UniProtKB/TrEMBL annotation:
Membrane topology, as annotated: Single-pass type IV membrane protein
UniProt organism field: Zoarces viviparus
Cellular component terms (Gene Ontology): endoplasmic reticulum membrane; plasma membrane
Residue intervals passing through the bilayer: 231-249
Organismal lineage: Eukaryota, Metazoa, Chordata, Craniata, Vertebrata
Cross-referenced Pfam families: Motile_Sperm (PF00635)
Any single biological process term in GO: endoplasmic reticulum membrane organization
Protein name: MSP domain-containing protein
Biased composition (Basic and acidic residues): 189-198
Region (Disordered): 128-161, 189-219
Biased composition (Low complexity): 205-219
Signal peptide boundaries: none
MF annotations from Gene Ontology: FFAT motif binding
Amino acid sequence: MARPEQVLVLEPQHELKFRGPFTDVVTATLKLTNPTDRNVCFKVKTTAPRRYCVRPNSGVIDPGNSVNVSVMLQPFDYDPNEKSKHKFMVQSMLAPYGMTDMEGVWKEAKPEELMDSKLRCAFEMPLENDKTHESETNQTEYSSPSSVKSELSTLPKSASASLDDGEVKKIMEECKRLQMEVHRLREENKQIREDDGLRKRKVTSMGSPHSSSSSAMATSAMRDEGLSTRILALCVLFFVIGVIIGKLAL
């Protein structure tokens, strides 16, 4: 009696492709879909069990659901002249109602209840162009500091000049802003002096000349000291910026 047709949908259907290099584990994915309204048990078998690791290699797929099976090929010495004879078989069966022991179900299954699909394995090595591209990509991503330095030294002078010009432009804008700040502080200092003069004259005409004059002078001195400190800090900043511009010009 012929076995029933496979109810699971396999992706891919006929061939598992493993793309080298094979110096490390290479993984291919097999998708199993259950389009029926019954639970389906499955097992994945291979003719070379020592060469592959399959996760999961068995299980139950609910109605309308899918399972991704990872087939991991272990590292080996690849020979392009040797064709792969490895094969995989996906075995399935409709799960009995009220199933509790899946292993027992497989042992008691009748041959006419089992369905299977077979897939062959194909090994592919990257093309030479792909290898060259990957090598160039790796060199770009993992360049050593010395190589980066040499690349920067070979940049056109116009490129480095444009970078310096950009930095100088930012510094000049900062200088203009600082000049405006100094001008504002000078105006503020001038206004404070005028206000102190008016206040001093009013106090002199209204109260004790000696005590009022002393307090006004003390207040004026404190404000002048604060403003002088800020102007001194700005002057120092101007000096530092001038040094930076001089170095960039060199």
